[in-house]
Design the sequence.
């Protein structure tokens, strides 16, 4: 879910505190001061309207102040305010009412800086003190009418923020946080269904949704006071085809709590739901007993953010994303004391304990793991661990280092710089790093890689208001929520170009800079190839002794003239920790062992094996790798052979 207004400058934040202020009456006309003082005020307005912060600051004294209900003082503080204003497409129109010595009184109109059309222009009484051609202080007081309009708008903004918080909590799998936003007597009215009534019934619904990988995106299209109407999309295991279901929702918010939700699907979504209702139901996850460490070993994802890896040796890693495992993870130890899961840091210091709920399919495949705080000495860690975690189908590798083409986005205050090749390769993994290690100006940073509509360029991107969505054709990836003073990397893949980079900060989220164009080389490099050939239950490898990392590899499955089984396939994996080929050979089933990372699967997929060659591709991060061959009938899959180890090295 997104809100329409992600930028609110000091003007917009502080004005509510002034809503009760009565605008002062205009002072009687005074003899005009020297014309240059009034000209300085107009020059300041001209500079801000042109987005020229340097020119604006040149008109300020060595120790300026700006007063609303609070006072900010100093060159850096005032510059920061002006940077926030011009980033929000700010415009100002002073209308001087009187001049008395160094004091100029103005009836001022302002636009932009996050203000909605409903309250623009904002009218205020301003008092400037101009001494020796420099502005030493400004005081700003909204008129009573403007303050009332803005207060009404802010009621709607607060309602939208509550709806946003509900979506964020559900997307993060945090049922407790979601229920905390629901009034005790709230009602949820759904299409052709019995309405829910009360926070307890909402909790049951939310538990069911997050266990089914529920996601929601609700975009407000109309807000009237505490009533927010949204265009809503939802995804999840119980939704036909995984989603999205598309609906109109109406939320009513009172006192920061949601008192009612009305969900009305589109005709197409309703038809899909009715058709799905006629199909056999998918078995729901079942809650199972947790008997020990072995039941939770593997990698778990925490909704839209967070990754938690339990290793069989009693160690764990927790990071902000799967890409952060293990390079940017916090580490520690874990064990069970009775039914309680206990954590400690690497030095053995107490890390809290949690009640555990494990949900699996009827066949025993992990689905979700819910941790509830029993004892939490570290609040920050509790906010990370006490949530619902989902079994990751793509298991993170152990101590791996990503290799391949790389570029870095380096933040310097509100600016960012690109450090990387002049041309990026298309169709292969590229490492994107965002470096904010020495920055503290904002709380969080991020960047995204996009292509723009035909005819649009960097100047168009930079000219957009800071909160406006760019007219992009494709978003190829990026990162968000990178804390000040840290850095992070992930892997992206671009297909076309040129590409541009948006540099983002929060709170609130806004675009502070943009880079590009960066050319993209669409020439298709020659890919290394290996072939797996079956002979009954056995398989043979034909390929290089060392495979490249950070580069696509063509994989070929050859089962020509084989008829012992209906289907054949192989998987490419690496092993965690001290696991070896012997462990992989001894694994008793075709299920993926929890101590492996799966890179790719190539499968004959119901094609006649008498004359089958299947081509696929994969790209590797680290090695050595092993090839697990398997065969299948309609009823069962069998692990038939294991090949390896095959070394992996950085491509030249």
Sequence:
């Amino acid at each position: 879910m997104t809100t329409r207004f992600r930028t609110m400058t000091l003007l917009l934040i502080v004005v509510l505190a002034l809503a009760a202020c009565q605008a002062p009456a205009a002072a009687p006309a005074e003899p005009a001061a020297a014309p240059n003082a009034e000209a300085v005020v107009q020059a300041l307005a001209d500079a801000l309207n042109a987005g020229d912060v340097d020119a604006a600051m040149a008109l300020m004294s060595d120790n300026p102040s700006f007063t609303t209900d609070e006072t900010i003082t100093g060159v850096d503080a005032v510059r920061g305010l002006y940077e926030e204003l011009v980033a929000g497409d700010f415009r100002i129109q002073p209308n001087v009412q009187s001049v008395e010595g160094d004091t100029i009184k103005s009836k001022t109109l302002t636009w932009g800086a996050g203000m909605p059309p409903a309250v623009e222009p904002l009218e205020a009484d301003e008092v400037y003190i101009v001494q020796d051609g420099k502005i030493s202080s400004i005081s700003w007081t909204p008129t009573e009418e403007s303050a009332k309009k803005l207060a009404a708008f802010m009621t709607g903004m607060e309602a939208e923020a509550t709806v946003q918080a509900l979506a964020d909590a559900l997307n993060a799998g945090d049922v407790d946080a979601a229920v905390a936003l629901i009034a005790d007597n709230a009602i949820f009215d759904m299409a052709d269904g019995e309405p829910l009534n009360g926070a307890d019934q909402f909790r049951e619904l939310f538990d069911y949704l997050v266990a089914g990988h529920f996601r929601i995106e609700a975009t407000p299209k109309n807000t009237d006071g505490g009533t927010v109407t949204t265009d809503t999309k939802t995804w999840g295991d119980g939704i036909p085809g995984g989603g999205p279901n598309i609906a109109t929702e109406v939320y009513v918010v009172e006192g920061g709590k949601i008192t009612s939700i009305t969900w009305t699907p589109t005709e197409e979504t309703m038809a899909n739901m009715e058709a799905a209702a006629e199909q056999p139901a998918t078995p729901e996850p079942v809650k199972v007993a947790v008997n020990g460490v072995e039941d939770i070993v593997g990698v778990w994802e925490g909704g839209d953010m967070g990754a938690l890896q339990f290793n069989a040796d009693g160690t764990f890693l927790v990071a902000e994303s799967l890409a952060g495992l293990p390079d940017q993870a916090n580490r520690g130890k874990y064990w069970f004391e009775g039914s309680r899961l206990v954590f400690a840091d690497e030095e053995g210091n107490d890390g809290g304990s949690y009640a555990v709920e494990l949900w699996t399919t009827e066949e025993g495949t992990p689905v979700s793991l819910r941790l509830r705080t029993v004892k939490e000495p570290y609040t920050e860690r509790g906010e990370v661990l006490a949530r619902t975690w989902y079994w990751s189908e793509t298991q993170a590798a152990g101590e791996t280092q990503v290799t391949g083409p790389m570029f870095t986005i380096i933040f310097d205050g509100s600016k960012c710089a690109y450090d990387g090749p002049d041309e990026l390769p298309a169709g292969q993994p590229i490492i994107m790093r965002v470096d904010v290690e020495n920055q503290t100006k904002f709380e969080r940073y991020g960047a995204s890689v996009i292509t723009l509509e035909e005819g649009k360029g960097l100047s168009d991107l930079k000219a957009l208001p800071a909160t406006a969505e760019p007219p992009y054709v494709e978003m190829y990836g990026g990162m968000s929520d990178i804390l000040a003073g840290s850095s992070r990397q992930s892997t992206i893949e671009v297909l076309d170009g040129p590409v541009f980079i948006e540099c983002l900060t929060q709170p609130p989220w806004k675009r502070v800079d943009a880079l590009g164009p960066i050319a993209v080389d669409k020439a298709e490099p020659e890919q290394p190839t290996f072939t797996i050939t079956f002979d009954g239950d056995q398989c043979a490898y034909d390929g290089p002794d060392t495979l490249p990392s950070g580069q696509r590899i063509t994989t070929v499955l050859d089962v020509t003239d084989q008829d012992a089984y209906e289907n054949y396939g192989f998987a490419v994996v690496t092993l965690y920790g001290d696991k070896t080929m012997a462990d992989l050979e001894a694994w008793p089933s075709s299920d993926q062992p929890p101590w492996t990372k799966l890179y790719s699967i190539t499968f004959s997929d119901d094609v006649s094996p008498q004359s089958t060659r299947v081509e696929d591709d994969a790209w590797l991060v680290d090695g050595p790798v092993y090839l697990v061959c398997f065969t299948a009938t309609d009823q069962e899959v069998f692990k038939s052979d294991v090949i390896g180890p095959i070394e992996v090295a950085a491509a030249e």
Q: What stands out?
A: The two ends are 43 Å apart (CA to CA).
